[in-house]
Amino acid sequence: MPSLSLCKQCSQIPFDAELKTLRSEEYSGPTSWSLGTFGELRARNCPFCELVAPMCTSGRFSWDAFTPPGDSEVVVVKWSSGRFGAACFDLGSCICISGDLDDRNANYAFAYYARTTFDEFIAFENVRRWISLCDQEHGSYGSECRPTPFNPAILPRIGKRQLDFRVIDVNKMCIVYAPLQCRYVALSYVWGAGKGSRLVLTSQNEETLMQPEALTNAQALIPNTILDAITVVRKLEEKYLWVDSLCLAQDDTVELQECVAIMDLFYEMAVLTIVAADGEDAWAGLRGVEPTPRQLNQRVRKIVPGLNMTTIKDMDSLLRRSTYSSRAWTMQEEIISPRLLVFVDGQVYFRCGHSHYSEALNWPGKPLHDLFNSIGSLYYTIFSMSEASFQTFSTILMYYMLRKLSYESDILRAAQGMLRKFSVLSGLHCFEGLPPPLERSLLFEKSLSFTNLGLNNFGRREGCPSYSWTGWKSPSVYSDFLEVSDICNDKAVDDSSQTNSVLRGWIIWHCKLEDGNLYRISNTGRLRKSLLPKPEDSKRNARRKFQGIQVAASDIEFGIVSDSSYPFLLFWTICINLRLTRESQAKGFVPGIVNYHAMDRFGKSCGTVKMDTIVPEMAEGKFVLLAATDDNFWALMLVWEDGVAERRGIVQLSKSVLDRCLPPGPRWKAITLR
Known about the structure:
- The protein is of the alpha+beta class.
- The chain has 19 helices and 31 strands.
């Protein structure tokens, strides 16, 4: 262990053996200290600075790349609750006293006395203790830690056949049909490209794989992560494991389609979900689970005589920088599971609705130290409430759109479990990934916060509608106003003299599905068979001023919908034309993405059009109004081809725009939007 002297800045901190001074109730001195700039800190030969420097990052959010701060950024460390932290550390990461099982001076009752040596293989008696404590003590808190009661009848029927719920019997080493009252563990992992062929369940080999020891005989074809997960289930003294590749018939497209739509239930009913975040693919295994050994090298520095310190990386920060958290499919598995056993960076962590245990801060046979109250993550609270709001949906979308897919066509499928869970909690049914009312959910925009994603992540996603976030490769977000605003009928503005900022809509939404049938989209998102919408239907919901706007003869026909892999939206609303002038390049934004000012016929700006993608130079744009407040209109900029429109941008327009737009002025128009 290096023995260095403290620098001038770190000498201000009252370091002593076991940090007795700082931990004393009588201590009344400072609790934060400036260590100078990050560049100065990196250049010093100081033991405490050497612990601080690797912990610093330029961003604390899950979408930020792990990059160090600029050399001129000032680093300030703070003492709180028995540890040192800093604003530039990942939330939950810290510097604390180091100790080991054979250290007789270690104060194991102190919550931030961290381990620095780990056995080659994980001590699962300690993990069982974490789970047992949750079982015993969290039952009175509600449902956060308890799985949804097992019910194989939730699986859909295909014709007259009820789909079977299959699991792996880890003792018999074969696939079995889940018994009644089945208690099972689920596995969440990254499939990856793989190394050669792998064993998956098919309709042809199902009977064979249901024979005892069938998986033992085929283990050369089973990825290491699945084999290690089987070992973990045995070590936890459980019997059944659910793994998608071996419990869903991979050659049965109907079964896969039906089960993907309810993927949330497979993880919600699991007593525990194993998260395999240690490695790039399913062949990486779980380090620390026999026979996959681990070798961990904790950074330890001697600060002063009697005080050795080390760094603790929080589970969230390690996960966010793993391949696992970069994949779209794994997000719903992680946030829907009531309890997680996470394997990442060679260690194991446990998280439930009320506790968070780390190997580094918990020794076998010693008092348990719960980190739940010391850290927080918006990510894990998405489905923590008994209800869900539009803000819930917006948060899901923010995280999900930053993840990667091997196949772009899976963009909606990989989120179906989360969207179904959202629907259950909110009572709203999503249409092409959009919860009602569509007046709000259609108004997503590109975010300037994600400029590091690169130009290749912008533009249309083929095979998906332009009106939905699924149709765009770049992350989509909603304004703070839209996240919390109430929605009401626009006609109410005529009946009230009071002004407010409520979003008001008038459109009656319809869709034409892939089979050619026409449906009305209800206020809850359900589809009802219908005839073609008429302008009077939407006019009836609008204020009297809007009802007086005319319908041009050229605007009464809906565009002809050709064969498509997704539904088209059909609706009536007010359409206007405005001039466009290029805005100067947004600072720090992706090269080529240029926004436009929407200008009225007098040359006055009506609003800034936030473009969805790179567009050619345009002199004029067509806009359809979706909703209004007292101060402005929310509108989409559309482009037409053969009578069918595509979205190109979003804009808030001033309330005077109807009187100042370009000829032929405002008019009601039939819109077919793909």
